[in-house]
Amino acid sequence: MAGTNHTEAEKLQQDGPAIILIGAQLGENIGKAVRAMYNFGLTDLRLVAPRDGWPNPAAVPAAAGADIVLEKAQVFETTAEAIADLSFVYATTARRRDMIKTVVTPRKCASLMREHATAGQKFGLLFGPEKAGLKNDDVALADAIVSVPLNPAFASINLAQAVILMSYEWFQTGADQPDQYTPQLDTTPATSEDLQKLFDHMEVELTEAGYFRHAQRRATMKRNLRNIFKRADMTKEEVSTLRGVIKALATGGGPGWLAEKAELGLDPEGGVNKTPEKDGK
């Protein structure tokens, strides 16, 4: 099927999810994914460490005229950098993971993303390399997992199929949303960059405290901590408060801390004050 209406296309290019391709291996596959995106009005393509570099001439013919997406593509070295400005991230994966994450269908994910768009929030979809899919560390950065119900005897789809499926579901939700939304005050979702800074801050202080002393468990412990806070759907204000808590715990508090300890019956050097026993008691 062919046909292009550029006026309508321009209307569709706003508020959609960022499509983040991690470690994509072939330029042709990137081009096919780009064609799938633009079929449904999506233009925010982000490439994380593409195997053959970027730009890739092989992507152009495969994109079949979706040049605007190729031209706007951004390239990042890490997934964390690619999602830094996003408040909600969804990881597409078919494999079971050793972490607790909310799992949704593509249709439910599209509905949630439409809510984010209506609220003026930024969001994106993670897609892994063609052969191996997303790594656990990438999935850990996501707020939820998108799992496609497929034939269990043949549950493999290629990159372009995954992108077109998610893009289609997003497109289909467009006609059912309210025209107006009144956001609540002081509930701006934390971005991935906000959370990354929180994680970095927390890991520095926990390392200083000796929490990660078991080298063989260090990566899993860090991933578990990240998952805990990703599931919390934190606001910017909550992240700021928690970073203040971490700083206070690491530095021993500020002015007035000794007086507060005394009021609570705590020893300034730690422990609990003991009231001296009277003679004969």
Describe this entry's structure for a reader.
By secondary structure, this protein is α/β, with parallel strands linked by helices. Helices cover 42% and strands 10% of the residues. It folds into two domains: 18-173, SPOUT methyltransferase, trefoil knot domain (Alpha/beta knot, 3-Layer(aba) Sandwich); 192-264, no CATH class. It contains twelve helices and seven strands. Strands 3-2-1-6-4-7-5 form a seven-stranded parallel beta sheet. Helix 2 links the parallel strand 1 and strand 2. Helix 2 (27-39) packs parallel to helix 8 (159-172), helix 6 crosses helix 8 (159-172) and helix 9 runs parallel beside helix 11 (236-251). Residues 271-281 have low confidence and may be disordered. Residues 19-168 form the tRNA/rRNA methyltransferase SpoU type domain.
